[in-house]
């Protein structure tokens, strides 16, 4: 992100000696020598390519200064130096040096392609687009920015690594920025960039970004904690030295070659723990710890035994992240021991390869190239996550939905579960059996009908716990339930379910739209829709231009979803057919407009309902129509066809406003499923009365789908409101008769919406 200004600070403000020293330091920082010392892992030809990029960037930024008065080129050099710590390749370093030339210097992408090749130009172009992103809120604009950033990362993770290096240097030099920008940039770093660094396993970067953001977001709290930590460090200096000496002696006696390093919690992690768990500084007991580096994986477990012989372990404080890595590839053994004077001390045990992955995550791909299993595991997990971003993008075009899908994956707090074949899966905490099914394969998720956890059948919404063995039962006729969206936790499951439901709804809406357009066209004297031959295709093309739709399917879907009136489209289509030389059938017109449906000639215009329809047809909850009721259909804008009872007051209001949107509908002779109806049962209070009422409904072969008893205290009489599933009006009448015969039932009736007064 650019932080250039037009003029340098006043040199008179400093003494000549200080000014001279600053000038020398500034010149050194702006020279290629400041970077060249870090390029020893590149070949001489690659170093020369980086040098050419430096010269180009230096010339492009000539005359531009940073807020502190340094030449602007010092910023790209610093970003490239951070990238060299991860041993990024020459193309990435060239892009780091050039990352601001498109935005600030008027250089074109074509020019960069000609000078440095398409790969470098694409990296710089991706970085330039990311530089323009700001995350001020959780609104649509922010979600769109977030989507663009993650997709750029998914296509080439080097873009995100360079962007994170750019953000790190800007945070390190935040003191030179106007103070009013500190809060926004720091909050953005904590909420967006630090979690991405953590998800990619860049733990050193993650911790530094958090501390720098904390320092500028809450400077007073930062200073207070910093002083408290310094005092604590001085008090515990002897304790830490004693523990280190005893640990070194124990390992020397075991003959195990180890490297021991101290570890101290960052200020932000201490603050976050105090804030979330409401602790004082003195109550945070795991500020200090040790990292034990051993040659081989087996040595980690041997070293664990040595430590447990030296100090007693705290129950419940052992974690094996080697057998079951964290979701970002991190591997270590964690154990907390009771040291001298009863002080808890955490130890982390890992191999050198695990240590590199723990600190550098996905950057270990460049940094550590020995084929270590820890690195391969981290690469596979991060590559899988990056690919999942592209998969979700393919199915989710809405930016808000994309943010909703991936934000859980950015803040992983995982549970680890097993398949029946003992494969381990890491899922976010709170994940359900449905999340597990989609993690296995999208087809397993789509066809899931039940789950077995640890040998017991459970509902699909059951939350998973560490160590669960999960098996999913599927059926070829099953499909996702919209209610699943209320409890799934993973972005993959959520996006797959939504994509399936949207596709299904569009198919159903298209079929309904084709049916309605055919009906409208029959009223104009044409028995069939135009076909696919050349002449008919010309008619379709003219109709699509008239409606502004891109395809025939889109037009039919719009009609089925109520975005377009079938009658209006039918009239235009009839006119186009007449222009092409096709004449309407006068007999068909008279039949459709003036003839009554009969058994010999059923009406093609009536929409027949049997309950097997999907999301394109909705049965209104205001009046809950059931077979046998006189019904009408209302084609709402973008809502599909809503079915109401003929006497519903909502229908009365809609008739006055949108009469042309009403369609003729009727029930099929044999509906495919039961329909819900609401009944009100007034009972005398007494022991077992609810059980008797429920038994009466069951005896009438109806299912109770919902019960509401009200919130008021029990009186002598109580009203019970049931939603029951019945086959038709006759079945509902049987249910009501059965209830009225039940002791303690005073009254039983169907609930209907209040009638609107005549004339309204």
TrEMBL record:
PROSITE patterns: ACT, HD, TGS. InterPro entries: ACT-like_dom_sf, ACT_dom, Beta-grasp_dom_sf, HD/PDEase_dom, HD_domain, NT_sf, RelA/Spo_fam, RelA/SpoT_AH_RIS. It holds the Pfam family RelA_AH_RIS. Residues 678-753 form the ACT domain. Residues 413-474 form the TGS domain. Residues 72-171 form the HD domain. GO terms for molecular function: GTP diphosphokinase activity; guanosine-3',5'-bis(diphosphate) 3'-diphosphatase activity. CDD domains: HDc, NT_Rel-Spo_like, TGS_RSH. GO terms for cellular component: plasma membrane. It comes from the Bacteria. Its EC number is 3.1.7.2. One of its GO terms (biological process) is response to starvation. Keywords: Hydrolase. In eubacteria ppGpp (guanosine 3'-diphosphate 5'-diphosphate) is a mediator of the stringent response that coordinates a variety of cellular activities in response to changes in nutritional abundance. Belongs to the relA/spoT family. This is Guanosine-3',5'-bis(Diphosphate) 3'-pyrophosphohydrolase.
């Amino acid at each position: 992100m650019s932080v250039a200004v037009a003029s340098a600070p006043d040199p008179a403000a400093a003494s000549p000696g200080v000014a001279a020293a600053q000038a020398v330091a500034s010149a050194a920082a702006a020279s290629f020598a400041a970077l060249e010392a870090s390029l020893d892992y590149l070949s001489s030809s690659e170093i020369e390519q980086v040098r050419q990029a430096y010269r180009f960037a230096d010339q492009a930024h000539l005359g531009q200064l940073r807020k502190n008065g340094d030449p602007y080129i010092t910023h790209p050099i610093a970003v490239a130096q951070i990238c060299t710590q991860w041993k990024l390749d020459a193309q990435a370093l060239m892009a780091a040096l050039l990352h601001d030339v498109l935005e600030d210097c008027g250089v074109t992408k074509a020019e960069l392609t000609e000078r440095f090749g398409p790969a470098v130009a694409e990296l710089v172009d991706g970085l330039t687009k990311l530089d323009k992103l700001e995350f001020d809120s959780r609104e649509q604009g922010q979600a769109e920015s977030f989507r663009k950033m993650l997709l750029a990362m998914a296509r080439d993770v080097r873009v995100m690594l360079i962007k994170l290096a750019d953000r790190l240097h800007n945070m390190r030099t935040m003191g030179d920025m106007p103070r009013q920008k500190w809060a926004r940039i720091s909050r953005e770093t904590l909420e967006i960039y630090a979690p991405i660094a953590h998800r990619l396993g860049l733990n050193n970067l993650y911790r530094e970004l958090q501390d720098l953001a904390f320092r500028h977001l809450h400077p007073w709290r930062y200073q207070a904690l910093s002083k408290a930590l310094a005092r604590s460090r001085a008090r515990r200096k002897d304790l830490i030295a004693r523990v280190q000496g005893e640990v070194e002696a124990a390992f020397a006696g075991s003959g195990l070659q180890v490297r021991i390093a101290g570890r101290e919690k960052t200020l932000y992690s201490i603050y976050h723990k105090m804030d979330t768990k409401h602790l004082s500084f003195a109550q945070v007991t795991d500020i200090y710890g040790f990292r034990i580096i051993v040659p081989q994986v087996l040595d980690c477990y041997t070293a664990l035994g040595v430590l447990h012989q030296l100090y007693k372990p705290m129950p419940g404080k052992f974690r094996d992240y080697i057998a079951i890595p964290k979701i970002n590839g991190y591997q270590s053994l964690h154990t907390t021991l009771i040291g001298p004077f009863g002080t808890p001390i955490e130890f982390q045990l890992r191999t050198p390869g695990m240590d590199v992955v723990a600190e550098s995550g996905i950057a270990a791909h460049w940094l550590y190239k020995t084929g270590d299993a820890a690195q391969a595991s981290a690469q596979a997990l991060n590559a899988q996550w990056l690919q999942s971003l592209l998969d979700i993008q393919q199915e989710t075009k809405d930016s808000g939905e994309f943010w909703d899908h991936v934000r859980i994956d950015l803040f992983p707090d995982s549970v680890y579960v097993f398949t029946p074949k003992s494969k381990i899966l890491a899922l976010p905490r709170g994940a359900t059996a449905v999340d597990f099914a989609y993690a296995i394969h999208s087809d397993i998720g789509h066809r899931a009908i039940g789950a077995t956890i640890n040998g017991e059948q459970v509902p699909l919404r059951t939350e998973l716990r560490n160590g669960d063995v999960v098996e999913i039962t599927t059926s070829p006729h099953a499909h996702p339930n919209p209610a699943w969206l209320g409890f799934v936790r993973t972005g993959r499951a959520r996006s797959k379910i939504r994509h399936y439901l949207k596709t299904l709804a569009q198919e159903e809406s298209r079929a309904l739209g084709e049916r309605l357009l055919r009906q409208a066209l029959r009223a104009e004297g044409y028995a069939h829709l135009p076909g696919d031959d050349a002449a008919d295709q010309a008619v379709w093309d003219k109709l699509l231009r008239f409606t502004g739709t891109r395809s025939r399917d889109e037009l039919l879907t719009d009609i089925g979803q109520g975005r377009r009136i079938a009658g209006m489209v039918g009239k235009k289509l009839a006119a186009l057919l007449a222009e092409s030389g096709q004449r309407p059938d006068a007999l068909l017109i008279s039949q459709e407009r003036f003839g009554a449906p009969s058994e010999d000639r059923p009406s093609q215009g009536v929409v027949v309902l049997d309950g097997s329809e999907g999301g394109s047809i909705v049965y209104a909850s205001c009046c809950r129509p059931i077979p046998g009721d006189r019904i009408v259909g209302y084609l709402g804008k973008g809502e599909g066809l809503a079915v109401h009872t003929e006497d519903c007051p909502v229908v009365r209001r809609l008739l006055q406003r949108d009469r042309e949107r009403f369609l003729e509908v009727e029930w099929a002779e044999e509906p495919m499923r039961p329909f819900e109806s609401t009944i009100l049962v007034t009972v005398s209070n007494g022991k077992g009365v609810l059980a008797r009422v429920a038994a009466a409904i069951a005896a009438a072969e109806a299912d109770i789908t919902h019960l509401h008893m009200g919130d008021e205290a029990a009186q002598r009489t109580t009203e019970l409101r049931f939603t029951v599933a019945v086959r038709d009006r006759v079945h509902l009448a049987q249910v009501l008769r059965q209830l009225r015969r039940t002791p303690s039932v005073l009254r039983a009736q169907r609930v209907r919406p209040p009638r609107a007064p005549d004339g309204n």
